[in-house]
Amino acid sequence: MSDLSSSSPAAEPLTVMGAGLVGSLLSLYLAQRGHPVRLFERRPDPRRTGQLEGRSINLALSDRGWRALEGVGVADAIRQVGIPMYGRTMHDVHGQLTYQPYGQAGQAIYSVNRGHLNRTLLDLAEAHSQVQVSFGQQCLHLDLKGQQLQLLDTASGREHTESYTRLFGTDGAFSAVRGAMQKTDRYDYSQHYLEYGYKELTIEAGPGGSWLLEQNSLHIWPRGQFMMIALPNLDGSFNCTLFFPFEGPVSFAALQTPAQVQEFFNREFADALPLMPHLTKEFFEHPTGSLVTIRCFPWKYDDDVLLLGDASHAIVPFYGQGMNAGFEDCTVLNQLLDQHGDTDWPTIFSEFQAQRKPNADAMADLAVYNFVEMRDRVADPRFLLQKKIEAKISSLYPGRWKPLYAQVTFSHTPYAEAWAAGQRQDAIMARLMPHIQTEADFDTPEVQERVRQEMEQVAGA
Amino acid sequence: MSDLSSSSPAAEPLTVMGAGLVGSLLSLYLAQRGHPVRLFERRPDPRRTGQLEGRSINLALSDRGWRALEGVGVADAIRQVGIPMYGRTMHDVHGQLTYQPYGQAGQAIYSVNRGHLNRTLLDLAEAHSQVQVSFGQQCLHLDLKGQQLQLLDTASGREHTESYTRLFGTDGAFSAVRGAMQKTDRYDYSQHYLEYGYKELTIEAGPGGSWLLEQNSLHIWPRGQFMMIALPNLDGSFNCTLFFPFEGPVSFAALQTPAQVQEFFNREFADALPLMPHLTKEFFEHPTGSLVTIRCFPWKYDDDVLLLGDASHAIVPFYGQGMNAGFEDCTVLNQLLDQHGDTDWPTIFSEFQAQRKPNADAMADLAVYNFVEMRDRVADPRFLLQKKIEAKISSLYPGRWKPLYAQVTFSHTPYAEAWAAGQRQDAIMARLMPHIQTEADFDTPEVQERVRQEMEQVAGA
């Protein structure tokens, strides 16, 4: 046991393993409640090295993330360097554009630079007198029964052992903390990969740092079995991501030469290609990322260890909710601390996992669902018509029909509730759409009557 | 690379990690084809220590297992020490018995002692001039790229490194070989535990080694949310297994004292209790086992490593197919070697996993399905009536309706096909049974006509 642990509960230090986005935000929350926090991170300080291994450059911050950032008073500062995206702009193979708003007027998701956000949170954490951050601390072994972390100081090569009374595992999808828990009896765990990989590419800025595509949009090139997306950066460039099968006739495996890549982009993304002068260099130099969904349970070990963020629920990126879900973990934990007090960790850990696990599972499903929507369905005029009809129904029945995207993105409705409502709505639309060929059809008495009947079955929200 | 690997393909040694049931049988198959085999086992030689950690004492051998044993000429010897079980005997709370045959006259599954079977296979493997068996060899590390196994000789404490060109991982549900593969990119893996544990108990032999229950039956005490089963041993005793929730009002957690156990067995298994004189001692001394389903993919690494048996598809024990499925892996691998020759390992490994993975997934589902059937449905008179009606349909349409249990147990139909047919049959019975209240109803013109119509939809087998 640590010699610090014998002091009063309020002064008992909490240990956080992993100083990524969730770990640094969590440390701030805990410190602001008066807890001393020791924050360990495997990698060197990213503010010195600038390296962020294998992670996307842009993130889409939405309401759940903002609320969590507001809780530590940093939302306004981040908003200054975020770019609002009010909707999706779809690019077809001929360069024709279609636009679909994400929500109501003024509602947006924000393109934010991951590195900037992480550095800002680390600066805040380190500036807090209660937080002690140590970088380059690799977890070699976690003794769950003995409550000890065996860490390697990567700079000096020295190993050291740290005792803990409460350990928070925020060390990401390949969490060492979870790794130790996985070896305990009756631990449910799954890692499932999509057959798609991703490649990060760049659309260059125009003259004087201008944006060569609409900057307040998330751009999608939906192509059925694959897609490219682009998110705006402050410097006028866009960060593009190609989501593409690993194997098959149209796949990473099939694009082996610069000429093949050039030809493929010319055929599929002809309007973007002239804006990507470094395409082939980037294509072959950047790694091909893989896309994993990780589920596990329990998220706690006894009353000593709790997993948060990607460590317990890594998801694919297609709903832009990975970070937002991890940040919401911090909000929920903070609420539970408000509710049960800062010493009743057994109750807090139990309630946390009971409350969050179904929502994390729903979000994992939603993320895969949105991949199909983005790469395939948004290119279908019938789907876009359906979305317009849904918006009309939502206006007519504002309390009873909240669009799924808005519930996930612009609300704090638990993900599991949003997902259940979304599935009910999909079933309703499957019954209505055969009777609707144009937007105007919505106003016919027949369709109005069908909508009225359907909505009678839907409970008020 | 091993210095042996540069010799001719036929003399190239094959490495098998894990000398359990599947590993020792596989080694025999490979050796009989002329391959030198090095077989490593983590545990000490079970023929010397007698220890078999955490595994059930009895196994139910059925047709798939027998076929695999016949392939190495050992089936007849094993059958001499197996006890045929021709059906299930259900015991209700009042001690009333119901009987349900497993198949047609003469068809049986065989209660076989795991230790005896493993020792027999090890004796045969060791007697084969091409097989070299090493016990007490713990896999510390597997270097997949370098094709090297780092082993610890547990007797001497010395570490040694073994190169391989082909490695077969038959090291069970917690496979070290699979453990290394899990860390490679895009490796799909899941471990899922039932909320039930199991406890092994004993019904003692009667005077002179007689059986105190019908010896040619598998006995079930189905109790809805839990059950006990018993399989006969040669010495007149029965090996009982209680499958029971870990937590809850009726659970392992709720039975904390000998008096509570005695009272519980007296209430639920009153006819068995007098036959279990060591019940409370066994209950508290024997470990409580957990029940895991493990799925993963791929089963191969490049063309060098292949997983078989529980290492790639551990399942829960309720269909008695875990060992049979692992033995069938050996049969299928042997067939692929016949088909493609003994050197085309890339094709053989690819075809093996493509062919076996869907069948292993189906068997995992079937095993959970049969748990519900055994602990709950077999106690329902309507279910038993349904099984009788199904037998009648099967007699009327022998090519088109093969009972699911028989397809799994008494045939070599791929598990996935059997499972699909079983689901179709369940759907048909759900439509028919509302029209059938007694066995005699089957012969009414109305029911006969319904059956005829249903069977028109079923393709001939």
TrEMBL record, chains A, B:
It catalyses: L-kynurenine + NADPH + O2 + H(+) = 3-hydroxy-L-kynurenine + NADP(+) + H2O. Residues 16-365 form the FAD-binding domain. It comes from Hymenobacter saemangeumensis. Its cofactor is FAD. Its EC number is 1.14.13.9. Pathway: Cofactor biosynthesis; NAD(+) biosynthesis; quinolinate from L-kynurenine: step 1/3. The gene is kmo. Catalyzes the hydroxylation of L-kynurenine (L-Kyn) to form 3-hydroxy-L-kynurenine (L-3OHKyn). Required for synthesis of quinolinic acid. InterPro entries: FAD-bd (IPR002938), FAD/NAD-bd_sf (IPR036188), Kynurenine_monooxygenase (IPR027545). Pfam families: FAD_binding_3 (PF01494). This is Kynurenine 3-monooxygenase. It comes from the Bacteria. It is an enzyme of class 1 (oxidoreductase). Belongs to the aromatic-ring hydroxylase family. KMO subfamily. Keywords: FAD, Flavoprotein, Monooxygenase, NADP, Oxidoreductase, Pyridine nucleotide biosynthesis. The keyword Phosphoprotein does not apply.
